[in-house]
Amino acid sequence: MRRYRELLRIPGVRGLTAAVLLGRVSTSMLNLALLVALTQRHGYASAGLIVMVFAVVNAIAGPVRGRQADRREPHRVLLTMVAAHTVAWVGLVAGLFTNAPVAVLCVATGLLGATIPPAGPVVRGLWPTIIPAEQVTTAYAFDAAVNTATFLTGPMIAGGLLLLMPAQAVVAVTGVVKLSGDLLIALTPALRAKRETKRRGGFLGPLAQPRVRLLLGMVVLDTFCFGCLEVAAVAAASGTGRAGVLTSALALGAVVSGLGYGARTWPGSPGAQLVTLHLGGAAVLVLAGMAGSAALVLVAATYTLYGLVNGPVETLQQLLVGDLTPEGQRIEAFAWVFSVMWAGFGIGTTVAGRLVSDGDPGGALYAAAPAQGVVAIVALAVLSRPHDTETLGPAH
């Protein structure tokens, strides 16, 4: 883990990582806390509708926020959005405590989704400007591992708090954590010192780059698979809380392999590595489908194995987005990544929900397997470009 120790010695990296951790863990906390709070007062159908409004508005507004951060000073954009986001949080929490009607809560969550500060895309766009080139791969691997770890720890923290206080109060605590993390990122000295970049116009922004569009398509398919795995976990656990064991196993495998990937140099170009990882992922998903009706421990083993195979994928995608996006458009490009992730995950859960209606998770897992194969084909298209011929590692 020498590379990670060296990474954390770089001035500003530790503080920035801690701030990112606060912001991201709050997101996974919110998913559980908000659903519980809404379900207790308004039932499952209304809770699903309100959360969907939040997700859709967030996905639509994300690239717009990213473009503003690219074209203006990122720290000023973040500070402005933190102020607006604070007002939105206050409105949502007040609505929950006063048992506001569903329509009012839809407006509140819509405002919450619209005002989310683009902290994640800003940080991902910032790494190459504050970290030596030979350590950028390690930085993105660490970033991806932290992101995955929050999906493991966030629900656990929220679940513990829900045992101690009302769900509305847990939502309020989540808001404090989120705003604190985003504010710390906005006040980071490295962000204020970010060098001026060329302002690039064009309605499509980074989407004008064909390879960026291909990469975003890969992200949609990858998160489609995660949506299928989420639903399949519930089906494999017969609708009980044991589904958390499977999703935790998946996250644990991804964190371990993601950190391992960033700790050393690996042969082959990013495209070649993505092809290998996704073909391996497709094989594991077929295996998981075959084990779908078996003992939970066996299904958990296949989920762990998929996490181990898939762990480095997010790091590779971040590297390619950063490399292939023109200077001055990177924050918007990473914002698009976050947006299409929501879309892919939502499509995956919708499709998988229809395929597991009989309680057998196999259908959802078998649907995810060909999606991984398609990603491998898309990765070949990225690999065929001359830009993508270098070996990943310290020289990258």
Automatic annotation (TrEMBL):
Transmembrane domains' residue ranges: 12-38, 44-64, 76-96, 102-127, 139-163, 169-191, 212-237, 243-263, 275-306, 333-352, 364-383
SUPFAM superfamilies to which the protein is assigned, alphabetical: MFS general substrate transporter (SSF103473)
Keyword terms of this UniProt record: Membrane, Transmembrane, Transmembrane helix
Keyword Nuclease found: no
Entry-linked InterPro entries: MFS, MFS_trans_sf
Family matches, as Pfam families: MFS_1
Origin superkingdom: Bacteria
GO molecular function: transmembrane transporter activity
Keyword Repressor on entry: no
UniProt name for this protein: Putative MFS family arabinose efflux permease
Species of provenance: Actinophytocola oryzae
